[in-house]
User: Fold these one by one.
Assistant:
Number 1:
Amino acid sequence: MRIILLGPPGAGKGTQAKSMSESLGLVHISSGDLLRDHQNRGTELGVTARDYMKKGLLVPDDLIIDMIEERIKMPDVEFGYILDGFPRTVQQARSLEKALENQGERIDKVANIVVSDQELITRLGGRWICRQCQQPFHEINSPPQIEGQCDTCNGELYQREDDTSEAVVKRIKVFGEQTNPLIEYYSKRGTLVSVDGEGSIEQVRESLIGAVS
Ligand SMILES: [Zn+2]
């Protein structure tokens, strides 16, 4: 089973991808984690990507596509995987489709976590992140035991400038502009399933598993 998980920032996509992959026995492939792993290992791909990021540029599509294509050919993914953070654009989706076709494979389901703009603003606006281990907290939904301090590593919590409400509204708008064509692309292929992302983590997880099974 090959699944793509889509969802706006603040939809809990990473958490859901991890939990779904455990329940379904699939490999969780996060493009962000994969990129960090390449950089830590100092691979050619990782070094090239870092050069772009140092200059404040986006890592080009081609690089990300190469990285994902290499990953989905590894033997541990023979029972399937959940892609998280990729594809982000229709161009990436087309490249992925082509790469899979060459192996006689295809994406089975694209699960889209749907959360209203108002709910996203509430969630992202109250977000605090640990400086040391990056664990996210939320002042209403998942507050830390001690204010301003990480439960896991005691690190200091901070709020990103991106998480101010103006920045959040802008991020949601940009995300929609990028993702709507992608949603349309998979909708036309009949692989898209939409899931209500406004329940509890467990409810959303159940809906997602039901939708892709
Ligand atoms: Zn921490």
Number 2:
Amino acid sequence: MSILHATTGLDLDDTAVGYAYRSTADLRLAYWLFRLLRWGWVVRWANWSGAKALSWRLPVEPLLRSTLGRLFLGGETLEATLPILANLRQFGVEAMLDFAVEAAQTEKEAEMAFQEYQRLLRFASQHREQVPFVAIKLTALAPPLLFQKLSQEAPLASTLEAFHSKLQERLEALCQQATAAGIGLMIDAEESWLQKAIDTIAETYMARYNTQFPWIYTSVQMYRRDRLDYLKGLLARAGNYLPGIKLVRGAYVEKERAYAAAHNQPDPIHPTKAATDIAYDAALMYCLERLDHLGLCVATHNRTSCMKAAQYLILKNWDRRHPHFSFSQLYGMADPLSFGLAKGGFRVIKYLPYGPLRQAFPYLARRAEENSSLSDQSGRELRWIAAELERRRQAAKRLYP
Ligand SMILES: Cc1cc2nc3c(=O)[nH]c(=O)nc-3n(C[C@H](O)[C@H](O)[C@H](O)COP(=O)(O)OP(=O)(O)OC[C@H]3O[C@@H](n4cnc5c(N)ncnc54)[C@H](O)[C@@H]3O)c2cc1C
């Protein structure tokens, strides 16, 4: 038993708790899928051919739907997520819905995403018990080029000017709708060359809407070398409002390194995983010490970081469901952490994407890549799933010897 386990009394490896919501058939599928995902070349090939097959309209959707889709997606429509929301709720776990759509390139795509976000917020307000948060991606509401130009403080062409003013109108409407309905709105963090503009925009709306409560959240990627200073600056600047911070490690290590090399820029990412972990936990403690003055969502599958956050609240004798505090993990990942924390009385929000498979494919491909290339995530998932399948086999043997 680890020191963290002993001091918190939490068991974040209890697979019976972690997978109670999953059928044995789903777990078998997850086992084989996570085994496959460990082969980097298989994932690269599958992602490449999957994208091609979808663009050529080959009939691969049923296969995707019954594999990656079944494990990581909430469904293809909002209504399709309802059984999953009810299932999670049974175990005290809530959800943050995310319309899985990639960056907009045209006004039509931006408008489509905006309308879906409005619909999503209406849905969340009707199912507030199950969906207290909604995630949005600013590049779904305007083309990435706009954020790049704004980040560089470069002049905007008239088409980008038009996108910019539309973006402001749309964000104002979404923030108003979310806060009026009592739903939190979390803005995703994206690539570093877009993020400066996203930071500025997120701060503007947090300052406007978070004067009483942290409704609007920005995301801070702690794999970036500059983010601890950014976080401290953000909290210092936020004199009369409560910033919402979704703390993540960051999803684009390889892309960031490649971009920096191609543009002759210094690598913005910490040199090692260990350095990212240190930065994440430092930021975590910095936020926890100021929890009355901000909102904090600990968005990670990292067991040690989750344990540290839980331990802090427990040792300080703070309310485990402090209204400013939550844990979040992606749907279909790190379930023993999510359900173990929920069982321990903490607020846990599963990040649940939904959307048509064709549009959600890049999200699924990212999950596949994340589980193959960088981390030992798939190893961790596999060990948990294998342990649970074995536990169920033994339990069945005892029942029917
Ligand atoms: C609820 C939720 C919301 C999220 N939202 C966002 C978002 O808005 N934007 C975003 O970018 N990501 C987001 N992510 C993804 C997140 O950033 C991580 O990619 C993912 O969660 C894995 O990190 P971890 O903390 O869970 O776990 P771990 O497995 O402990 O850490 C893996 C992470 O460590 C870092 N890392 C790995 N190898 C190295 C290395 N060699 N050098 C430096 N760092 C390294 C990377 O960030 C990698 O993703 C989100 C994740 C969750 C759970």
